Amino acid sequence: MEEVKLHYDVNAYDFTCAGEASGKLKRSLKDLGFDASLVRNVAIAVYEAEINMVIHAEGGVIDATITPECITVVLADKGPGIPDVELAMKEGYSTAPENVRSLGFGAGMGLPNIKKYTDEMTIDTTIGVGTTITLKIYNK
Amino acid sequence: MSTVFHSVSLNKDKCLGCMNCIKRCPTQAIRVRRGKATIISERCIDCGECIRICPHHAKTAMSDPLSDIEAYKYKIALPAPSLYGQFNNLDDVNYVLTALLELGFDSVFEVAKGAEIVSDATRKMLKTQDLLKPVISTACPAVIRLIRVRYPELIDNMITLKTPMDESARLARQEAREKTGLSDEDIGVFFITPCPAKITAIKSPLAANSSDVNGAIAMSEIYPLLLQKMDKLDEKQLKALEQSGKIGVGWAASGGEASASLCEKYIAADGIENVIQILEEVEDEKLNDIEFIELNACTGGCVGGCLTVANTFVAKTRLSALKKYLPVSCNHIETEIPKELGWDYPLEPLSVLKLADNVTDSMKLMNQVSAMVENFPGLDCGTCGAPTCRALAEDIVRGYASVDDCIFRIKNEMATKELAENEIDKLIPVPFRGIDEEKLKWT
Questions:
Q1: Are A37 and B285 in contact (CB < 8 Å)?
Q2: pLDDT of residue B431
Q3: pLDDT at residue B430 in the model
Q4: Is A68 close to B366, i.e. CB distance below 8 A?
Q5: CA angle B254, B174, B229 (to 5 degrees)
Q6: The overall pTM is greater than 0.80
Q7: Parent domain of A15
Q8: Do B283 and A37 touch (CB under 8 A)?
Q9: What is the model's pLDDT at position B386?
Q10: What domain count does chain A have?
Q11: Chain A neighbors of B366, CB-CB under 8 A
């Protein structure tokens, strides 16, 4: 089956480039002719996850695998890990430092929003090692 | 390939085939072919950026000559409010309006009047209807076309109102019919336009069955003629024609329309790159707390149109001074929003940027594009005639270009001949010499 693989690097604490990867992915999905609502869901979910990487995880890599049926996005970082995933999934829960919040980020909606806009979301995290988030959005 | 009308056209004799316009075009709609710029019709949104950037004035807008008004028994001028910002030391708009009559028009109808009515309709709709937020203004035809080709999912956010020009033309016609008893064919309505996008909106209307406007005269063309007439006018000859206030005149510059919406949270973005950034943010649902967004393709708003004469920022200051003594607004909707002010039919998306008709084929092409891009130098130099290496690769997979169009191909060709490395390098233009050899291998 035909598939398209896309790779992006995300730099830590670089807010001038934050959102560039999700923006490029969005552009590619549009060029491929995916339905607008699917493109929007992917763009929003990946943007949130990308910002998380910038704020919390000292950057990382994003790998998207696109097939006509499904968009799979794997976001891997070598950050501090998430101590309590269940707590992190609660709306409004945030560990973002004040300087980040003053930029308008870190409202504690990141992970809940990612879940809301995706069909499947798995979080694989180890303290001190890093976090890998896998997102799946099906082309219905 | 296409029957779409565009007001932006090329004077082939003046075009040198340089890279300026292809790099500037926001929809990557221009390629240089055989030494001349060519416009990909389906992609062009008539924003006029290429007209503005072309150092050789090879790009022009197809506006109508003033003599066209002679074809009608009753001639009406529709001056855009941006016209008032073109004149130095103008303290009374009636000088401009009276001078228009002296140029042969039988009456003038300020587009500022139509703008005040559109503003009133906007306020009414925001108040009484459950509109998808943020509501996006539809006054700039280049923005409408941009949304249609690049952000089709945002069509639902657009306010379904026609432009101040359309509303003014409709009302002007109505007035003229009642006053003269003439039929529509005998009444000529001419818009004094600051931009080519409005010309296209007249000749090839969107969301409207037809336009009440018969022609568009470029502001830059009528300006010297007006100036001559205005110089000769003394105060006693002035006719009291002005019928609009701060709100109507304010539409000429960015922020005027948005502030007239009386929303608490609004954005007014101008300049095509800024417009694109805002649309990206709306698309990603980052601006859901914003009520109204005014977007103008030209920097500064309509006063920045490429058919204006005065510097955008100077014109803005002049307009502020003019507005100072005007009433807030002189035109209102008494009862309900007139049906004709709304769109005649919903706007359809126009997907011209996708690679193929279905996702699977598009994927094949995208993989080919990516492989090709890997082998291009990535300089986006434009010498192939496409704005970026990626755009060239897309053109190639679509069958419109060839890998031979890349200048670095020459270097590889030469490498097969018996030339020393440094001699090959000399065949490449100076800025491109000594590029990473690995990157320039061709597959």
A1: no
A2: 64
A3: 66
A4: no
A5: 60
A6: yes
A7: 4-138
A8: no
A9: 96
A10: 1
A11: 4, 28, 31-32
**Residue A31 to residue B285, Cβ atoms within 8 A:** no
> How many Cβ contacts (< 8 angstroms) between chains A and B?
56
Residues in Cβ contact with A17 at an 8 Å cutoff, skipping those fewer than 6 apart: A10, A11
Q: Over 80: is that where the pLDDT of B32 sits?
A: yes
Residues of chain B neighbouring A43 (CB-CB closer than 8 A) = 283-284
- Scan residues 27-66 of A and list those with Cβ closer than 8 Å to B: 28, 30-34, 36-37, 39-40, 43-44, 47, 66
Residue A13's pLDDT is: 76
CATH number of the domain where residue A21 is located = 3.30.565.10
* Domains of chain B by start residue, with CATH: 8-61 (3.30.70.20), 66-341 (no CATH), 359-440 (1.10.15.40)
pLDDT value of position B1: 36
Closest approach of B353 to chain A, Cα-based (Å): 6
The CA distance from A34 to the nearest CA of chain B, in Å, is 7
Q: Taking the CA atoms of B350, B354, B356 and B362 in sequence, report the sign of the dihedral they define.
A: negative
Q: From its phi and psi, is residue B208 left (phi > 0), alpha (psi between -120 and 50) or beta?
A: beta
Residue B438 has pLDDT above 60, yes or no: no
3-class secondary-structure state, position A131: strand
For residue B382, name the pLDDT band (cuts at 50, 70, 90): very high
Give one DSSP letter per residue of B321-377, joined into a string.
HHHTTS-S-----SSSPPGGGB-SSPPPP---SSSSSSHHHHHHHHHHHHHHHHHS-
Nearest to B363 among A22, A32, A40 (CB): A32
Q: What is the mean pLDDT of residues A53-67?
A: 90
Q: E-strand spans in chain A?
A: 4-10, 60-66, 70-77, 120-126, 130-138
Interface test with A, best of B149, B283, B364 (most A CBs within 10 A): B283
User: Does B196 score more than 50 pLDDT?
Assistant: yes
- How many other CB atoms sit within 10 Å of the CB of residue B75? 25
For B280, the closest of A23, A31, A32 (CB atoms) is: A23
Q: Give the pLDDT band (50/70/90) at residue A52.
A: confident
**Residue B246 corresponds to which amino acid?**
K
Question: Which token pair is A93?
Answer: 């829960």
Other beta carbons within 10 Å of A99:
10
**Residue A36's closest chain B neighbor by CA?**
B153
